[in-house]
Design the sequence.
């Protein structure tokens, strides 16, 4: 793909990406984030937009494979911005306000040994996205939406 | 000494290569961290990342943050699947016998010396 700058997407054009992942499949989650990064680079987004989207994609995907049974990460890319939706079947989040606090984590010791479980994923998403929303049902699953807007100019 | 590359660091600090750089990428700084989400948020393009983590997941983090390379410290070695994945993705992995603090100090000094030469 040739690099023209993100304007090459045109006013109405968009790209959709979808990644399916099972619980504990860290490598699929990592690959999804790096493919999203590659696609944004090829389309020609600014480095800072790519970096922010990459952090959000990585943390959303990792939360699926760490905390849920299975799920999907959907990415919608337009010239004006990027939307990410992570949908999973899993335990859900009983207290979202608590989960959003930096340092709060229910990750198991074996997960923590691999470097996860700092309780920084959701705060990272909040910090790097222009907006986020969580919808969750305990015992059913979680849907996380986050978006990154490209400033005009 | 205009640039400091991974090869320079490896030579001066006796680091072992587990996967090799395809090009002589300049090292512009460093970041230390064993919590992957912290490294995702703070490590930057061109830095070396010092960590005690040896698991495959460090490859994705290194790739996504564009770090120049990962240096595993304290005499630890990457797991075989980490090396395999890093080779596939073109991520450079090195290791050192030194603990993170000591190695980080030495790298910091080399970067300061380089900066003094470049900026006078
Ligand atoms: N998709 C999810 N399903 C169920 N629980 C979740 C999900 N995402 C987050 N949580 C809950 O929210 C907590 C905080 O999530 P966050 O991503 O901030 O930290 P973490 O995943 O535990 O650690 P880190 O992201 O630093 O590796 C988790 O420990 C978990 O209890
Ligand atoms: Mg997380």
Sequence:
């Amino acid at each position: 793909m040739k690099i023209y700058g993100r304007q090459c997407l045109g006013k109405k054009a968009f790209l959709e990406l979808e990644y399916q992942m099972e619980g504990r499949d860290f490598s699929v989650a990592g690959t999804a984030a790096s493919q999203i990064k590659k696609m944004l680079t090829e389309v020609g987004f600014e480095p800072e937009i790519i970096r922010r989207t990459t952090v959000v994609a990585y943390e959303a995907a990792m939360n699926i494979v760490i905390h849920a049974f299975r799920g999907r990460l959907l990415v919608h890319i337009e010239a004006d911005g990027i939307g990410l939706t992570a949908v999973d079947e899993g335990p859900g989040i009983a207290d979202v306000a608590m989960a959003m606090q930096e340092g709060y984590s229910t990750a198991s010791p074996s997960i923590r040994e691999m470097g996860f479980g700092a309780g920084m994923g959701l705060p990272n998403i909040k910090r790097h996205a222009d907006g986020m929303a969580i919808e969750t049902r305990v015992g059913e699953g979680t849907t996380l939406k986050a978006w990154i807007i490209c400033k005009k100019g | 000494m205009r640039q400091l590359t991974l090869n320079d660091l490896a030579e001066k600090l006796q680091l072992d290569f587990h996967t090799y750089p395809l090009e002589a990428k300049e090292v512009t700084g460093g970041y230390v961290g064993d919590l992957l989400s912290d490294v995702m948020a703070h490590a930057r393009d061109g830095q070396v990342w010092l960590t005690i983590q040896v698991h495959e997941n460090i490859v994705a983090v290194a790739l996504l943050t564009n770090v120049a390379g990962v240096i595993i410290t304290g005499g630890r070695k990457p797991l075989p699947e980490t090396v395999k994945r890093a080779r596939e993705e073109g991520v450079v992995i090195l290791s050192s016998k030194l603990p993170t603090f000591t190695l980080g100090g030495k790298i910091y000094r080399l970067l300061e010396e380089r900066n003094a030469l470049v900026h006078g």
User: Anything to note?
Assistant: The pocket of adenosine-5'-triphosphate (ligand 1) is lined by residues A 59, 63-64, 66-68, 88, 90-93, 99, 104-107, 116-123, 142; B 37 (CB under 6 Å).
